[in-house]
Amino acid sequence: MILTVAMLLVLAGVLWARLHPFLVLIVTALVVAALTPPDRLGEAVALPIGRRVAEGFGKTAHDIGILIAMASILGQCLMEARGAERIVAAIERLVGQRRAAFAFLGAGFLLGIPMFAEAVFYLLLPLAKASWRETRRHGVLLVLSIVAGATMTHSLVPPTPGPLFVADEMGIDIALMMRQGMIVGAIAALAGFGYATWADRRFAIPLRTAGDDVPGTEAGKQRPGTEAGGELPPLWASLLPILLPVVLISADSAVNSMTVIPASVARIIHFVGDKNLALTASATAAILLLAYRPGASREKVRQAVAAAVLEGGEIILVIAAGGALGATLRQAGMAELAAAAVPEQALLLLPIAWGVTVLIRAAQGSATVAMITAVGIIAPIADAASLPYHEVYVALAIGCGSKPGMWMNDSGFWVIARMTGMTETETLKTASVMVAIEGTVGLLATMALASFWPIT
Q1: Residue 5, SS3?
Q2: Which of 156, 201, 389, 447 maximizes the CB count within 10 A of its CB?
């Protein structure tokens, strides 16, 4: 109990000082390691504190560092090549211009798999504004549709950092996390879309001019497919970087349960379906999409990859620091402490995991950091329990818990407010309420799936 209180006090103190999440997590891991009694360390008792923290850091970077770097390159090059705009245009043609909001919901949901949620919003908002300028109607619905789709895959579907880290910490197969995450995410996104439709009728909020000068979106002020920057890339080439890792990793997972596949074929599938190789192939496809775009140059490709590596490197540091914290918590005996916290009704662990993540998200603002911190607390409880359902549902509950609590301490809150020109109050009663509904509905969907489709 003393150890847990000390850890939370240090975490709260560093967060209050508004330091970078990397420093928050590393400092907390070091303090936890320093306060851990030697009798709990086993063979690690001979290792210095810094070495124990570094080993947890290194293991996490080893497990998911390449995945995050490649996912960052994938998203950046897809955006620079305007493949994302091609996907929006294709969905809009499929559902019709009158259902443009649904097109943005689908595009946000799909693009949120390889791209960070804020990058999706930066990319799609000018397109939503272009649609709004034609009719001067449904401005709130168009904006919230983007958020509703992107925010759920951001926290539920790898290879985005949060769900990728949670799956790795809990030993969950990435293909399984992708599949169940997309199911729960789709249900929650539709619930958010329902609220967005109601809010659009209830609140007469125009899309104001603030944020129109976002870098890189000048072409997006016109309708997709009509920009002066040249033709959009083919749809198949735009979808390939997104779908390739899903197909390859899922095939690798599925082949283990198939006995009719020849051993030689199975070896090939295992080779190409390795998560690191699959994401590398996907990033390569995105780089080629940008490289073969008319007017593209080596320098533009180099700059896109360099920018992605810088952004991905920062995320890797934060995620690996979270891994270090998780390792020190396990060394401190969280598994033993967690055994007493296992609820008698196993299904109650899901709202507990959700609630812990909600509190952390509301306290410090970042959905990804909330997931990283929460899984260090919840994973030992899940390990100590004999769950009648797969641990993937605990991971999904953590992801859904990272949605409520979006307010003024969240950078995403200010991105939405500043780029749409909405006031703080308007953003709170639209976007913040919507993501809270999505997180709650996501939890209910997760609990229902755990009851009726336990995957044990």
Answers
A1: helix
A2: 156
